[in-house]
Structures are given as C-alpha cells and as structure tokens.
Write a structure and sequence with these properties.
Distance between the termini: 28 Å
Largest sheet: 5 strands, antiparallel
Oligomer: single chain
Strand order of the largest sheet: 3-7-6-5-4
Number of helices: 8
Number of strands: 7
Helix content: 25-40%
Shape: globular
Order of helices and strands: HEEHHHHHEHEEEEH
Number of domains: 2
C-alpha cells in the first residue's frame, strides 16, 4: 500500500507530496468483517495527522448516535477499549452525557467530511482541488432531505456514484456536475443516520445526514446561501 500511494500529490492539501496511503473512511468506523476494499488515497504526513486526530475522536463518539446494527456492535465491542486509552475523552463524555444525548464537539463532523469529500473526489474521478476551489460540509436534519432530493434530481451530472460500505455502515452518493471537474455534490449517511441532538447550527433538533459540496470559490457562497440560507464557511 505504501509504495502504491507514495510520492504523489496529497489529495487533501493538493500541495505536499504523499508519504503513503490513507483510508478515506477510517477502518475503525467499521466492524472487522467490513474493512476490506475501503477507498484509499495518497496522503501527506501533515494531512494524515490532522485527519487522524478527528478520526480518533469521532470513531469513539459517533457510534453512540448511530441507528445501524454495526453502530451498536461497535459501541459494545470496540468503543470501551478506545475509551480505556483516552481518559480525557471518557471524562468529557461522563460529564456531558444526560442519558439521551452525547456531547458532540462543534464542527468536528464537518471537518472530517471535508477530508472525506476531497478523498472521494480523487478516488472516483481523479480530481484534486486547486487554489481557486473550496469545499464545505454540514450536518442537516432529516426533514431537509426532500429539498436536497429536489436539488439532486434536477442535476444533470457529468458522473455519479452511489456506494454502500459495510452493509450500511457508510452510504454515500456523489454527483460531479457538468460545470467543472472540481464541482460536486455529496450526501452521506453514517450508521443509518445519526441521532445527535447537539451540533453547530441547532442544539435542540435531531440530525442525521451530512451534505458536502465542492466548486469554484467565487460561486460556492451563492449556491450555499440558496440551499441552506446561511453564509458559507469554506474549509479551503
């Protein structure tokens, strides 16, 4: 794996040479039986470190909010071992858990899915975003699925993918638009849809899906405002 992905351009930053391969979706999200053939991409050490820090946190926390059988098994069999090695996170969860809701740090899911979206853009269509492009991700409530379905149904894509990993552990669809190779729309469901009540935009409602988009930095803010009615906060 290392030689295959070494000395290429890192797909996450688009600047530094890769030092090896990275699993776009961390293997720890999946049960052992579902870890074969996960997407991999070239990655530099710096991006690998930043992404790994998010994954160490989220592979422990997200199973608490999953509705999929794999989430329950992960929670019973794997999460306790991770918490044994992370006393600080264990303390934060004990302090913030109210019996129905796990405290989820603001923006952590969105940051991880910025990485994931960049990885999938290269994995499926060999595109690395440049300086004139940006990417953004958000978590939205299941009530918003209809409006997003409407947007996706009206789109005439250059390419499209629909993928189910780990028997429903991660399900995603991607649409590369005809505007440019670096323009794309993505929808993700983790563990059958997450049931966290606490997130960056609305601390009370339950949210389940993740949406991400890539495209020209000059055009993305208008698109984002038209879909979500809020100012875009691009990651890059």
């Amino acid at each position: 794996m290392t030689k295959k992905y070494k000395d290429k351009l890192c797909v996450y930053c688009g600047l530094r040479p890769s030092t090896g391969g990275d699993h776009v979706f961390a293997r720890e999200f999946f049960l052992v039986a579902h870890r074969d053939s996960l997407p991999q991409v070239p990655c530099c050490d710096q991006c690998n470190g930043e992404k790994s820090a998010l994954e160490h946190y989220l592979t422990t926390v997200l199973p608490f909010g999953g509705r999929h059988a794999s989430a329950a098994t992960n929670l019973q069999m794997m999460v306790p071992k991770r918490l044994e090695r992370n006393a600080r996170l264990l303390g934060r969860l004990r302090e913030g858990y109210d019996g129905t809701r796990i405290p989820l740090e603001k923006g952590q899911v969105e940051k991880l899915f910025v990485f994931i979206t960049k990885g999938l853009l290269w994995y499926h269509w060999q595109v690395i975003l440049g300086a004139g492009d940006c990417v953004a991700a958000t978590v939205f409530r299941s009530e918003g699925v209809a409006s997003l379905d409407h947007i996706l149904s009206r789109l005439t894509p250059r390419n499209r993918v629909d993928v189910n990993l780990g028997d429903g552990t991660f399900v995603y669809e991607g649409r590369q638009t005809i505007d440019s190779p670096g323009s794309s729309l993505w929808r993700f469901a983790i563990y059958g849809g997450l049931c966290f009540g606490e997130r960056s935009r609305d601390s009370e409602g339950k949210h389940s899906l993740i949406f991400a988009a890539t495209g020209p930095r000059a055009l993305m803010p208008r698109f984002w405002a038209s879909v979500f009615g809020e100012e875009l906060q691009p990651a890059s």
